[in-house]
Design a protein that fits this description.
Two copies of one chain form a homodimer.
Chain A lengths: L11 E7 L11 H13 L4 E2 L5 H10 L3 E7 L5 E8 L7 E7 L3 E8 L4 E9 L9 H8 L4 H23 L7 E8 L1 H8 L21 E2 H4 L8 E4 L9 H10 L8 E6 L3 E6 L4 E6 L2 H4 L14 E7 L6 E5 L7 E2 L1 H13 L18 E4 L2 E7 L10 E4 H24 L9 E5 H6 L2 H6 L11 E5 L1 H11 L3 H11 E3 L6 H10 L18
Parallel strand pairs in A: 2-4, 5-8, 8-10, 11-20, 13-22, 14-16, 20-21
Antiparallel strand pairs in A: 1-3, 3-4, 5-6, 6-7, 9-10, 11-12, 12-13, 14-15, 17-18, 18-19
Chain lengths: 520, 520
């Protein structure tokens, strides 16, 4: 890192120092000599040093004849020296960015020196073994050892990723300098071993929203033990660091025009605003949309049906699944495709009921309930048919209605209409895989000019990675966290009326969806 | 502590908080709620929190129904929350100020709430068991376990003081919030367990000069384990935190007129300057002046002869010793008195030789050397006579000559004369006990108008205590440390010529000492 001031610095940066050797004319103390040079290089006014390392580092400094590499944690409020290695080791400097989701964990390892992503992976949150959703995990955390067990499950999963990486490249844990992590408030509490008890009980109080930067050893992470761990702050129990990472990454907070970010994970989180103000809210809309609720639903992954086309004339069904094998279930984007196509083909009516007057051999009955056969048993991975029931449809419509109602309520709360939203950022696996056209068809997303939609993918992960490479974003995140107002969704009669109207396909008020083709 | 902004805050301050209870309208996270209130009260922008305490503190906060006392370490660069106790505990808040001398350790315990000193003590540095002076202790620190043994000796001695205090008042260690410590660079290295190897080898490099504030548990001190420990920074190997504490306490750095601070401990440290600049130097002048070198010398304490008058006519000797018992030896101020009085009475000539032509029964011979009998065996504590030999006199004169030469050299190095020094601050036990008139008589101090001398006592201890009560001084100390230029005393022919001239009584150039009475 030769001219650090010309570009943004990563959250943990290495500096090779060739220090002037001590002399009678320059008899600055050894450690002060290191810090003096670092301050000159970085413009920092103050750099902290862990007391218990000073003796060893100064010994190393003298042995290395004042030619050393300093590792700096550029965390707010103050930078911290966290290693001093003999010679020039600036070439090995990596960091891990983590999106800690309730269901999935996604990671990227970055080369901080070359600013290149060198490894990416995602896997089920191992806490799902103990409880599929947030509430069951909070309950588990109240049992003896429950919190610790949940915490260790995630720490060990991340450590496996880290150890696999260092092992495969013959690196030492000390070469992994930093970790950034964004997640919802509950996941972050569990990861940090903080009691989540009050998160889901009125008035919904986190233990802490904004945490000082930690060292890896405080959490038992297999990085450099003194390397910085940055946890994105929460806004509240229902708006987590993942959404802050999303705002920061999307740039919503720098827009002049009215903008909206929706992040559909296990929960739906929505932020409305611009460079002047930010208003956020959250609601239960997600599980059905993620594919986690339908009887044959599954999260996006190999075997998941993600695209469906139904020929309105022949009612022929074409499926596309992730990976090369036979289908195993249907994921969120597949479900939305399915409902949109069935609606367009007349197989579902405007009230959201199966229309069995339209004849096809795919209508079946399961436990006396009507269902739509998506894949017969002989074509599936499991040997069981993949079906879509009226119950699944009802759940999905409630979710999409909740989502649309949350969007409407939020926008109306500040005297705007949805069609005034100029930038519609769509985050989450949802935003990555979904076809906005289909989402509009079922009335999940508003009927805006299509170019206003900006699918961004996993903004929680991307935001975490962006911070890893540019510590300057910390200050911006701090400002965003301070600027967001949380809107508590008041589930009153107005809300319920809007919700009921939004359960129709696409909506009772068709004037809101002028571009959606009327069903046959 | 009700209106903290109206007065200076101590280094560790307690604040009783009655926080608004969480509600749907104010659902700030628990810890953030505490910090928000503290920031409002103090105006601080950032307050750090030790991660491993958060869970316990938030549990306590909830149990105490949001009525808690927060303990804040107001250390630079950032404040730190270090305790959260149920209810109002602001009444118990104490701190320890320490002057860590090579020979003696002096301590004061202050009630930080009432701003009253509640306990004071001083005792021999227990490291003297292992080595009387700095060099022997540095040698010991190089042996296995040597450094740890030296460190533990001081830590345990301080812990005894702390435990006696808490024991006698039924307090807990947690009621002792903070510790400030000033000492010379070597003593501070040994106290912190930092390798002193390079301190006394050219080019004389400390491990570290400016340390970030520590927590008591990092040093094993019997205070609140997370309470702040502030160590005054060193300027270099030969100018320590004790002199910084002295400058800060004396206010030398705020004077418009040319001012000088001399601190005679085991070493002599001198700082010259004003509000614009500061120039410091140090030299070996002290031991003899402290009474540690003469055959019958002792440090100031019970039994030490501290004042002597000799009637110029009758040569009758009157002594005054510390305490009520018979004399045991002679301390620094007693030695200076003795030489001044003997000189005035004609018993010592201008060359610093005993003048046995003046007859008195006090002339004796010891091992064939001439000596002056100060107290016969039957009058002393030890049963041995207290005598003063020509060798003792020679050593004292070398010390006083070194001191005067250092003062002259320092002042001349910036183109001034000693008589232009408007404020002459005299620090150290020396400054407390010595009679400036006598010190001038022997040519140890320059012959200035007497009102320019400001004896300040133990400015290292007083400076440490002042900081304990007013954290704002940290910033001033940081500025002083950054402003001092260290003058390496170049022992060249010029210096040696000056030194030789200064070995006379009071000086070969009598015009420098116009007010000193010529001997009989």
């Amino acid at each position: 890192m030769n001219s650090p001031l010309e570009k943004s610095l990563p959250l943990a940066a290495k500096f090779y120092l060739e220090l002037p050797r001590p002399s009678l004319r320059d008899n600055t103390a050894d450690l002060d000599r290191v810090l003096r040079q670092l301050k000159t290089l970085t413009g920092l006014e103050s750099i902290q040093v862990p007391f218990d390392q000073i003796s060893a580092w100064v010994r190393r400094l003298r042995q290395a004849d004042y030619r050393v590499t300093a590792a700096l944690a550029l965390t707010l409020p103050g930078a911290r020296l966290f290693d001093l290695e003999p010679g020039d080791t600036t070439a090995t400097a990596f960091g891990l960015a983590v999106d800690l989701g309730t269901t999935r964990i996604a990671c990227q390892i970055w080369d901080l020196q070359r600013r290149e992503m060198v490894f990416e992976t995602d896997f089920d949150n191992p806490q799902t073994r103990f409880g599929p959703d947030i509430l069951t995990r909070i309950q588990m955390a109240e049992k003896p050892e429950g919190l610790r067990t949940l915490q260790e499950a995630v720490v060990q999963a991340l450590n496996r990723v880290l150890r696999d990486f260092t092992g495969s490249r013959s690196l030492r844990p000390e070469n992994l300098l930093a970790l950034t992590l964004a997640g919802n408030t509950t996941m972050v509490h569990l990861f940090l071993g903080l009691d989540p008890y009050a998160l889901r009980r009125e008035p919904y109080i986190p233990v802490v929203n904004t945490l000082a930067p930690l060292s890896a050893r405080e959490l038992g992470l297999a990085l450099h033990p003194l390397g910085p761990v940055y946890i994105f702050p929460n806004v509240g129990s229902y708006l987590g660091g993942d959404i802050l990472a999303g705002i920061q990454f999307s740039g919503l907070h720098r827009q002049d025009a009215l903008s909206l970010l929706v992040d559909v994970g296990t929960n739906a989180e929505v932020v409305l605003g611009n460079s002047q103000w930010l208003l956020g809210c959250a609601g239960a809309a997600g599980p059905a949309l993620e594919g986690g609720v339908a009887a044959m639903g599954m999260t996006a992954g190999p075997g998941a049906i993600e695209k469906i086309r139904i020929d309105p004339g022949t009612l022929e069904v074409r499926r596309q699944q992730i990976g090369t094998g036979p289908p195993a279930g249907i994921c969120g984007s597949g479900l939305i495709d399915l409902v949109a196509e069935m609606f367009t083909a007349g197989l579902i009516d405007i009230r959201g009921k199966f229309n069995r007057k339209v004849k096809t051999e795919r209508w079946v009955e399961v436990d006396g309930q009507p269902a739509f056969l998506l894949a017969p048993a002989q074509e599936t991975q499991t040997g069981r048919p993949i079906i879509f029931t009226q119950v699944d449809l009802d759940i999905l419509l409630r979710s999409k209605a909740a989502m649309y109602t949350i969007l409407t309520t939020l926008v109306q709360s500040v005297g705007h209409r949805l069609d005034e939203v100029e930038n519609f950022f769509v985050a989450g696996a949802f935003g990555n895989h979904i076809d906005p056209e289909k989402a509009i068809t079922i009335g999940l997303l508003p009927d805006l000019p299509r170019e206003r939609f900006r699918p961004l993918g996993n903004t929680s992960l991307k935001g975490a990675a962006a911070l890893l490479l540019d510590q300057g974003r910390q200050e911006e995140i701090r400002r965003i966290a301070g600027a967001i107002t949380y809107l508590e969704m008041n589930v009153n009669q107005d809300f319920m009326n809007r919700f009921s109207a939004a359960r129709f396909l696409p909506h009772t008020d068709l004037s809101l969806f002028p571009s959606v083709p009327r069903p046959l």
